[in-house]
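Work through what follows:
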Amino acid sequence: MDFGGGARGIELRAVHARRAALRPNPAEITKVPEEDGDTAPQEFLRPTAGAAAQASELASPTLSSEESLAEFRDLVASAGGEVAAELMQRRPRPDPATLVGQGKVEEIAAVAASTASDLVLFDHDLSPTQLRNLEAALPCRVLDRTQLILDIFARHARTREGQLQVELAQLQYLLPRLTGRGKAMSQLGGGIGTRGPGETQLETDRRRIQRRIDHLKSELESVRRTRRQQRQRREAVPVPTVALVGYTNAGKSTLFNCLTGAQVFSSSKMFATLDPKLRAIELPSRRKVLVSDTVGFIRNLPHTLVTSFRATLEEVEQAEVLLHVRDAASTYGAEQRTQVEKVLAELEVLDKPRIEVLNKIDLLPEHEREGLASRGGVAVSALTGEGIDGLLQAIDQALHSDPILEAELRVPQQEGALLAAIEAGTMVHNREYEGNLVRLSVSGPASLLGRLRKYRLRDGPT
């Protein structure tokens, strides 16, 4: 849909989904495209038994309608859905009652009925009024973009912490959208005249959900306290943290596995990682750093998710260096970069040192790989390991804490354990033997060389 002059598109799709009362379950989804205008022809993809229809959102000014539609298809697939049909409409402004016009609502209803869809998805956030009116006009359930993302998060939440965060985001989204219908809105008992004696069912539901929200916030605050305690213990032995951030499905978890040798779950589906992972690695300078994998970002990421996942995103806030992992093969990489930086700005971490990691270069032809140098950043393939050595060196150069120093050491030969620690923790540039002493020229972390002060002859920065 074009809301106000730009060539922006709103897409409508049909989806088959299943959800629990408050926490959505994995969705199976279906969609529908249409060209400009209310009377444009429709292209049906593959109707499925029990599907639904879905409408889209404002495409970003730098994102074409087809790119926006492709991303929404990926969201649907990540929710376990199957597209039945897609619709696209342009109009000067959104309808405050139904987002799309009344004629389009009738058309969506006809498409949903003809494809046996049981869910309509809008690639756009719906106000409580719009959601209520659309559900009344359509023969199936209606979800907007935020609800779809919450469904995906609910599907991928594996730890207790992740489940708490998803449930909190869902309830915060649900609370202003509670509606009562028919007898559910009536007073709970009799009264004198027109004055009711008690709460409506709606008020009861709101109070119950608010209590649950307060309980979830309390539990997540406990998680944050535990994380702070763990971080304080880590800070007693200073090891800097490097956090992976980036657009969803940019390859962060695959890169995390490549750097650390871990076997965390990675998938081509969006938001496969919800819970933070932390592993130690050794850099070329022999410094140790912790690498943190975090949840991916996306265009129009619901604010409730950023708020609910604050405990998880604390690793980003505390990191010394951010690795912004980008999909070098994406056709809308610039838009993805902008959206990630918006979330980083919300987290107030834009001033941190950042290294742009252009991932998935194995998907690019040779001539395009050569052009990556002009884009800046470090080109890698987390899948094949290409470029990883250069990335480790870039991390080494970006770290400011625990700087690398050069030193001359004189260590007795009988101090075998100490010599082994020096070999393991520093780069030895020269070794000479003077009687029962070993004279070493080394470079290594200041934290290690500080513990060797009594063996040092001289030192200085590298």
About this structure: The first helix runs from residue 65 to 78. The chain has three domains: 10-151, 238-398, 404-461. The radius of gyration is 28 Å. DSSP finds 14 helices and 15 strands in the chain.
